[in-house]
Structure formats: structure tokens, C-alpha cells
Amino acid sequence: MDISFFSSRKIVFTVAACWLMFISMHAVALFFIGYTWSIAFLDAGVTNLLLFLASLVVNNTLRFYQPDKGKYLNVVAWCVLLACMWLFLSRWVLMYMLVDYPIYRSLFDRSLIIRGFVGFLIISAAGLVSMLWYTLHHQKENERRKADAERLAREAELFNLRQQLQPHFLFNSLNSISALVGRRPEEARTMIHQLSDFLRGTLKKSENEFVSLEDEFTHLQLYLDIEKVRFGHRLQTEIDQEEGCGTMSLPAMILQPLVENAIKFGLYDTTGMVTIRIAASCEMGYLVLRISNPYDVKTVRPKSGTGFGLSGIKRRLYLLFARIDLLETNGENDIFTTTVRIPQYDKGNNN
Q1: Please, which residues have CB within 8 angstroms of residue 287's CB and are 6 or more apart in sequence?
Q2: Phi, psi at residue 342, to the nearest 5°?
Q3: What is the number of H-type helices and E-type strands within the chain?
Q4: Nearest 5 degrees, angle CA 135-CA 138-CA 140?
Q5: What is the DSSP letter of 246?
Q6: DSSP state string for 264-317
Q7: Is the confidence at residue 207, as pLDDT, over 60?
Q8: Quick check: 349 pLDDT over 60?
Q9: In contact, 328 and 339? CB cutoff 8 Å
Q10: pLDDT of residue 159
Q11: What is the residue-averaged pLDDT of the chain?
């Protein structure tokens, strides 16, 4: 364990203040039972300094050794041994310093049992506090490492989801560019520039980044411009944004795969003009996005949670918000609608 109990200044000042108070109380007690002030402070200073060192030994031991369940007696035995060593050493030092005071030696020896008991209690208390502190710190470190591991796993899975979605769009766009090069080179050149701008914006965003709805619509427009080159007049879009929703946030790059899914089901099986509708509204702490497209019930039978990108988006929303109810699909009256609800609380706790 790398961190020390005394790594905090607040703890250092608190321990120092408590120990100075204990030395003062010890000296006053000795004075009232007949010691002079000089002998009382000498006794209190030496014994408590050595007692503090013994407590530091216990603290440092528990910093690197945390007893398993059923082995706490090892700590108690270590405290008993330290108390005996402290009592012997403090007696030897004080007798050496006060050799000319035989009465003091007699009084000291008569108080050995009390001194030893008090010393054991203080050393044990220091050991208990140290054990609790290091145990709690160890638990916090484990929780932090676990949270970091889970965050890295989420980010890896989110990245994997993006890698699954991007090639589909990229391949379609390159195929369209290839088809346009011979017949309409100017449109092919325009589409290359649009694709470059779209991919550049994509690379600047991470999957767990939150952006404003206005920024997301700006990026989405690049995608729609590319698709309109592919499908020409057949693809029409309508974007309806409720006032006040532009500043609300949502996960970056979440609209594009939803719109791509709508284009797939709306245009791939038809030859006529199709209108994709995108609506954004603010509803009781949620940003609600609805993407609608017509579909032919004879050739397409949309099911809840199916379709290209929808399962990936649902998984991504779960990773970001730990909820499975934020994406819904519905097919009625030849209209397929995907609804996404984005909570507007603090996203920092979910990333």
C-alpha cells in the first residue's frame, strides 16, 4: 500500500495536538501525586515519545500487513510485545537520566502495572485506528480500480460499436462515388469533399462525448448531403426542432446511424420519393428524438429493436445511462418510427 496514514496534513496536526495534550495531562497528573514539575515533564516527555514511536511501528506494520479474518490475535500479540518493549525501554532511559533520585525509581516501579496497561491500550488503539484507516483506503482503491476497469471496458465496447457502424456507411459512399466518377464527375468531387468533412468531424468526437443537439444536427447535415447525392431527388428530409432544445445534450454521433437505418428501410425497397422526418422535443427532463420513415408492409416487417444500427444504439445507451428503456420502435400506418429519449441529468456520472 503506497499511501501513508500521515500523508494528510490534517491527520498530522490532529495527532500532534492530541499527543501534546496527552503529555501535558500526564505531567499534571504526576505533579499532583508529588513529582516536581521538572521530573513530571521529563517522565511525560520520555514515556510518551517512546509510546508514540511504538504506535508508529504498529501503524507502519499495518500499512503493509492486513490480517485476514481469524488472525487478529496476531495484531494483539504484537501490541502486547510492543507495550512490554516500550515499558522496559522507558524505564531504562528514565532510570539513567534520574539516577540521583532513588525515590522516583521506587514510585516508578510501583506504577509499572498501570503504565503497562495504559501503554497497551494506547498502542492497541493506534493499531485499531490504523487498521480501519488502511482497510477503508484499500477498499476505496479497489472500488476506484474496478470503476476504471469498467470505464475502460465500456469505452472499448463503444469503440467496437462505432467500428461496426462506420464501414457500412463508408462502403456505400465509396461505391456511390465510384458510380458518379464516370457519369457526373463534379458530383463525385463534391461527394468526396462532403465525405471528408463528415469523417473529419467523426474522428474529432469520442463515443462517450456529449454534444449539443445543434452541433449534432450540423454534423448530421453533412451525412444527409452525402446521401442526397447518392439518392438524388428520391431522398427528402424534414427536421423539426422544438424551441429551446438546441442546447440540450446527447451522445455524439447517435443520430447518424438512426437516420441511416431509416434511409435503409425507407428507400432500399422503393423507387419513388421518400421523406425522412426527424423531430426533436423537450419532455420532462428528456430530449426526445423521433426518426420516421415510410415502409412497405409487403416487403419489410420491422420488429422492435431490429434493423441496422438499432441494436448497437440500444447497447450504447445502456452503457452510457445503464437503462434499456431509452429506445423504442413502432410501425403503424406504413410509418416506421424510432424514438430515443436522452436524460438531461449530469452525464459525468455515467461516462
Answers
A1: 213, 245, 248, 249, 250, 280, 281, 341, 342, 344
A2: -110, 115
A3: 9, 7
A4: 110
A5: T
A6: HHHHTT-SS-EEEEEEEEEETTEEEEEEEEE--TTT----TT-STTHHHHHHHH
A7: no
A8: no
A9: yes
A10: 61
A11: 78
What mean pLDDT is predicted for residues 115-124?
Answer: 85
Of the chain, the end-to-end C-alpha distance in Å amounts to: 28
Residue 283, amino acid: E
Torsion angles phi and psi, residue 235, rounded to 5: -100, 120
Record the cell numbers describing residue 343, joined without a space: 436524460
Distance CA 328, CA 144 (A): 34
d(CA 82, CA 90): 12
Q: What's the DSSP call for residue 36?
A: -
Q: Is 155 left (phi over 0), alpha (psi -120 to 50) or beta?
A: alpha
Q: Could you tell me how far CA 206 lies from the centroid of its own chain? A: 17
CB 290 within 8 A of CB 262: no
> What is residue 247's DSSP assignment?
T
The grid coordinates listed for 105 are 525509581
Mean pLDDT of all residues in 34-52: 82
| Cell numbers found for residue 240 | 423539426
> Is the whole-model pTM more than 0.70?
no
250 within 8 A of 216, measured Cβ to Cβ: yes
Distance CA 139, CA 244 (A): 44
Lowest model confidence (mean pLDDT) among 154-158, 195-199, 260-264: 154-158
* pLDDT interval class at 298 (50, 70, 90): low
CB 47 within 8 A of CB 90: yes
Amino acid at 276: I
Q: What is the pLDDT of residue 139?
A: 83
Helix (H) or strand (E) holding 51: helix 37-64
Q: Which three cell numbers stand for residue 245?
A: 432544445
Sheet holding 335-343, edge to edge: 235-241, 274-283, 286-294, 335-343, 327-332
Quickly tell me which residue has 457500412 as its cell: 168
Question: What pLDDT, on a 0 to 100 scale, did the predictor assign at position 65?
Answer: 73
* 304 torsion bin: left (phi>0), alpha (psi -120 to 50), beta (else): beta
